[in-house]
Structures are given as C-alpha cells and as structure tokens.
Write a structure and sequence with these properties.
The structure is a single chain. This protein has helices at about 15-30, 35-50, 55-80, 85-105, 110-120, 130-150, 160-180, 195-210, 215-245, 255-260, 280-300. The protein is an all-alpha fold. It folds into 2 domains: about 15-150, no CATH class; about 160-300.
C-alpha cells in the first residue's frame, strides 16, 4: 500500500503578507501627522492597490487610484462651490463622474471618485479643497509604500513556472512521438500541445510585465532565453502537425531511433529499415527536425547539462 505525499501549502501567500505589511507601514506613516479614519482608509486603499502580481499591473492600479482621487476631488470641489443641496450635489456628481468616465473611455471603475465625492459632501466643517488634497496625499503614501514593498521585497518571479511549462511540453513531445511510433494505425493529434504553448506564452507575458529591480540584467537574459524556447516549441508543433496528418508513419532509421532512446522514449515500432520508401524518408526528416528543435529548446533553457536523457 502506497501513500502519496501531499504538498503543504502556506495558509497565507506571499502577496497577502506583502499587502498586510504595506497597509501597516502606510498607516504608521499617516499616523505620524495625525491619523483619522479617512486618512487611514485612503492610505490602506492605496497600499492594497499597489501590491499586484506584476510591475505593470501595479503601475496600472496606481494610475487608476490617482485618476480616481483627482477626478472625485475635482468634481466634488466644483459642485460644492455651486451651493446646491447635499443630495442634489451627490446625485449630480455621481452621474457626472460615471458619464465622464464613459465618455473619456476610462477603463477603471468609477467607485473611488464617487467615494471621494460623497465624503466631500457629507463631512461637515471641512474645507473641500484642503480635504481633497489631503486624500490625494494619503493615497499617494499608500501607493508609494505598496510599490516599494512589491518591487523590493520578494518581487514576484514566475521563472520557475515557465521552466515547468517548458519541461511539461518536452514530456508531451516525447509522448506524442511514442504514440506516433507505437506500431498501430492510430495517429495522435498534435493540437493538444497548443495547451502547453499557451501556458508558456501566458507565463512569458507575466514575466515580461515584471521588473525585478535588483536583477534587471538577469531578467532580460532570462526573457530572451524563454522566448527562444517558445519559438522552438512553436516550430516543433508545426512539424508534429505535419506528421499527424501523414496517416501511418514510415520506419525509423538507426540515428533517430538512437536519439529517441537516449531521450528516454519507448518506441514500440520495431520494423526494420532495409530499403527506404518515400514515407520513411519524410518521417525520418520530420522526426529529426523535431528532435533537433527539442535539443535546441532544452539547451537554451540550460537543462542539457542537468539531464542524462537529452540527446
């Protein structure tokens, strides 16, 4: 009887821990010049907004917060200067914010500027302009702290996930060749490998949107390497799709059979190759190209020196 080992997952993720740290530090800073519920709330919102998976997402989130606070403050101060009744000011202001967001095609949600507007209209004994500037400052503190923590303390790095995606693709390539060359008349479909390539592409997009401040040069080199891997993977897929449309494949020559054996593939088609047919030539050419691209992909990834099975 065998028991599978279960992976122990931390109940609190790294991003959650960084968000908590950003919020607490922002609150401590805000408290230094006189904390209030409004100051703490906007510092917290800024800190939480800035801690995103990638640098690009963090910048986008920060920009949306700044735009929201400025928009709400501008609309609120303008309408309050007209001396309208409170409910009328709030209603007109919310309608105006949403309309302007739609008209200007601002993709961010209008909830934050509406919150600013309502607070400006409902808090008594405040100077609207001074209050609006204060909320901009509080939000900026939270954003600054959140960005600093997100970029400098254990920045998100998904290079391991990309390597795992490449290795998964490599296993699926060998599986495809095993199923293709198993001696029966059933030809595998190479389109299933699109899933591996799509996963790799998505991880690459995330990696390219990140900025590892202390390792920018290394990150650039890694990104170039991963893109080479993706290019080789797409080329392999094209060759495999041709093989999958050939019907029953031809017989392997000794060179390809040995390379596949070195890669750890179990090839059950043991038909001897005496006189080569056109189908044999085409099959061996395509298998040779796939194995060459596979080797180039793993070499780019830096795995050829770590794995004994690579040809």
């Amino acid at each position: 009887m065998t028991f599978k080992k279960k992976k122990i997952r931390m109940p609190i993720g790294l991003r959650t821990a960084k968000t908590v740290a950003a919020v607490l530090i922002s609150m401590v800073i805000v408290d230094a010049y006189g904390a209030s519920s409004a100051k703490l709330i906007f510092a917290m919102l800024g800190a939480m907004a800035a801690v995103q998976p990638t640098f690009k997402e963090s910048l986008t989130s920060c920009f949306s917060q700044i735009v929201g606070v400025l928009f709400g403050a501008a609309v609120g101060v303008t309408l309050l200067s007209l001396g309208l009744p409170q409910l009328a000011t709030i209603g007109i202001g919310i309608a105006l914010v949403i309309t302007l967001y739609n008209w200007l095609r601002i993709k961010y949600p209008p909830s934050l500027p509406c919150l600013i507007l309502v607070m400006l209209c409902t808090i008594v004994d405040i100077h609207p302009l001074v209050y609006a500037l204060g909320r901009i400052w509080d939000t900026a503190i939270g954003l600054g702290v959140g960005m600093a923590i997100n970029m400098l303390i254990f920045p998100y790095d998904n290079s391991r996930q990309i390597r795992a995606a490449v290795e998964s693709l490599d296993r699926d390539v060998l599986t495809f060749l095993e199923e293709l060359l198993d001696g029966d008349d059933v030809v595998p479909d190479a389109k299933g490998l699109n899933r591996d390539i799509a996963t790799m592409a998505a991880q690459l997009k995330t990696f390219s949107n990140q900025k590892l401040v202390m390792r920018l040069a290394m990150q650039k080199k890694q990104l170039e390497t991963f893109r080479i891997c993706e290019e080789k993977a797409r080329e392999m897929l094209a060759w495999m799709e041709v093989l999958s449309h050939m019907g029953k494949p031809g017989r392997l020559n000794r060179e390809n059979r040995e390379r596949l054996a070195q890669a750890g593939a179990n090839i059950r088609d043991q038909r001897p190759l005496e006189e080569e047919t056109e189908q044999d030539v085409v099959t061996n050419y395509h298998v040779s190209r796939i194995l060459a691209l596979r080797s180039e992909m793993l070499e780019a990834l830096g795995n050829t020196g770590k794995s004994k099975k690579d040809p």
